[in-house]
Amino acid sequence: MTPYILETQDLEFKYDDGTFALKGISLKIEKGKKVAVLGSNGAGKSTLFLNFNGILKPTKGKLLFKNKEVKYNHASLFELRKSIGIVFQDPETQLFSSSVYQEVSFGPMNLKLSKNEVIERVEKALQDTGVSHLRKKPPHFLSYGQKKRVSIADILVMEPEVIIFDEPTACLDPKHTLQIMKLFDTVRQKGTTVIMSTHDVETAYSWAEQILVMKDGLLVKEGAPEDIFRDEELLNNADLVKPFVLETYDELVKTGIINSETITPRNKNDLFALIQKIEK
Ligand SMILES: Nc1ncnc2c1ncn2[C@@H]1O[C@H](COP(=O)(O)OP(=O)(O)OP(=O)(O)O)[C@@H](O)[C@H]1O
Ligand SMILES: [Mg+2]
User: Fold this and answer.
1) b or e along 175-186 (b: 16 or more beta carbons within 10 Å of the residue's beta carbon)?
2) Ligand 1 site, residue 89, Cβ cutoff 6 A
């Protein structure tokens, strides 16, 4: 059996006010994959994520975790939330402690780990997200980007099997965006499944192994980054644009300046390497 860590079958979700936010989503996510979810404002990305870890219960359809249907009883939800960590789109809804240190240590202290392990994990999470120097500050006094990084540390420190990041790099400066994206790769190397939503097509194209595109509560396409971003009709339909690296590469091939490669460049360094091979 393929080790799908998460699966939805015809999942629907309606908010109390009648908004039909998810209109029958069927998808499968393999363990250890890097997955990006794209789609315009209001497409349903955050609603899907809240269904993924049981904060919201589907109105219809199923959620499966490790090939087992999630039952919405206490034990099943406890297991799901322990295994799937979510970093909310808005850090304000996540942070509640009186200092950054307390905030990040709260979760691991409840995991019944040894005191040393708690300290080790907290120090590492603070360092990895670049917020060590803010440890004594109350989270509500931080800048938005700093709050976002603390909210990421908050979940990383728990070491869940799946981490969901809802627009993790929105509002981060370029240096910290790079730091956070590198961090996701490190986390992934440990076998963690990383799912993130983003409006940044360049990041999604260079980082993801699987891309899910949503529109109006539906999954309109799922596939490898090249397949998604070469589908002009999809890009128009889902309000997306082609990443600059791919657009430049396709143009250079079309005009005969470079030969088509078996592996499409995924970032600017890959592209520069191809350009350097052009005979003068
Ligand atoms: N608590 C709520 N009550 C009622 N409707 C809601 C609620 N939260 C979201 N919605 C609606 O559900 C739909 C999907 O919203 P969602 O936040 O999942 O979109 P999104 O893809 O995450 O958008 P964004 O890119 O802006 O974050 C939207 O029409 C939104 O207005
Ligand atoms: Mg959202």
Assistant:
1) ebbebbbebbee
2) yes
Q: Which CATH code fits 4-225?
A: 3.40.50.300
Residue nearest to atom 29 of ligand 1 (CA): 42
Q: How many beta carbons lie within 10 A of that of residue 121, not counting itself?
A: 21
- Ligand 1 atom 17: the closest Cα is on which residue? 46
Whether ligand 1 lies within 6 angstroms of the CB of 93 is answered as no
- Residue 152 phi/psi, 5° resolution? -70, -45
Burial class of residue 106, CB neighbours in 10 A (0-12, 13-18, 19+) = middle
Q: How far is the CA of 12 from the centre of ligand 1 (A)?
A: 14
Calpha distance 148→170 (Å, rounded): 9
Q: Answer yes or no: is the C-beta of 170 below 6 A from any ligand 1 atom.
A: no
Q: What is the pLDDT of residues 215-267, one digit of tens each?
A: 999 999 999 999 999 999 999 999 999 999 999 999 999 998 988 877 899 99
The answer for residues whose C-beta is within 8 angstroms of residue 257's C-beta and 6 or more apart is 278
pLDDT in tens, 28-87: 999 999 999 999 999 999 999 999 999 999 999 999 999 999 999 999 999 999 999 999
Instruction: Please give the structure tokens belonging to residue 197.
Output: 């939503």
Domain range summary for the chain, segments of one domain joined by +:
4-225
Residues 198, 204: contact at Cβ < 8 Å? yes
pLDDT at 280 over 70: no
CA distance 52 to 65: 9
Name the amino acid, one letter, at 156: L
Tell me if the pTM is above 0.85.
Answer: yes
